[in-house]
C-alpha cells in the first residue's frame, strides 16, 4: 500500500485537478490510497468511484454524532465512499491533543463502522537517542489495538513514522525502519498470533521517489505513508512504481 497524506493542502478544486492526474497512474499490484482534507473529500469521492484509487480521510470522531463542534463522523465518511482513516498522526498528537486513548477509541469506532484505520506510531528524536524506539512504538501499537478482535485485525494498517523524519528530509535507514517494523509485528503477534502477518505495516517519514525502492525492498515494510512527495503526481507515481 502506498498512501498519500495530503495534510492541510489542496482546496476542493485543486483536489479535483490533482486527482485527474493521479487517476491516470496504473498502480499495478500496489494499493494506492489518497487522503485529502476532510472538506475536499466530497469533491474527491465521485471522481474516484470505479477507479483503482482508494479514498482515505485524515481523522474521524469516535462518537456516532452529537455536540462535537468541528468534528466529522464515521457515517458521513462512509457515505462519501471513504475506506481508510489516518489516526494518531504525530501532528494530531502534537497539535490537537490526540492521545493513545483517543486513538484507540477511534480505531474501534472505525472498525465498527466499516472504515479501515491507518494507525500512526513513532518515536521522537530524544526517544530514539535514548534507545527506547521499540518500547515506544510497541506500546503505542498495543494501546491503539486494545479491544480489536482477531476478526478485525487484518483490516488495521499501522504506519511507523519516526517523528524526527516527518517533513524533515531525514529518513530512517531502511535497515532501522525494517527492524522497528519487525518489532511492531512481534508485538501484534503476541496478541493475534499468525494474523500479524496480515497486518500491513507501512513506513512514513520523508519517503520519496528516491528512497522508496530501498525501503520497499525490506521484507517487513509493506508500504509507505507519503507526505511531502504526494502532491506532485509524477513524484507520487514514481513512489508507486518503486
Ligand atoms: P513526509 O510526511 O513524507 O512529508 O515526511 C509523512 C507523514 O506525515 O505522513
3D architecture notes:
It is globular, with a radius of gyration of 17 Å. It has helices at residues 12-22, 38-48, 74-80, 90-95, 100-112, 125-129, 133-145, 174-192, 212-216, 233-240; strands at 2-5, 32-35, 53-57, 84-87, 116-121, 157-160, 200-204, 224-226. The protein is 40% helix and 14% strand. It has an eight-stranded parallel β-barrel, surrounded by five helices. The longest helix has 19 residues, at 174-192. The model has no long low-confidence stretch (mean pLDDT 96). Helix 1 packs across helix 10 (233-240), helix 5 (100-112) crosses helix 7 (133-145) and helix 7 crosses helix 8. The protein contains ten helices and eight strands. It is of the alpha/beta class and 242 residues long. Residues 5, 161, 166-167, 204-207, 225-228 line the site of 2-phosphoglycolic acid. 2-phosphoglycolic acid (PGA) binds next to strand 8.
Give the SSE map.
Blueprint: E1 2-5, H1 12-22, E2 32-35, H2 38-48, E3 53-57, H3 74-80, E4 84-87, H4 90-95, H5 100-112, E5 116-121, H6 125-129, H7 133-145, E6 157-160, H8 174-192, E7 200-204, H9 212-216, E8 224-226, H10 233-240
Helix pairs in contact: 1-2, 1-10, 5-7, 7-8
Bound molecules: 2-phosphoglycolic acid.
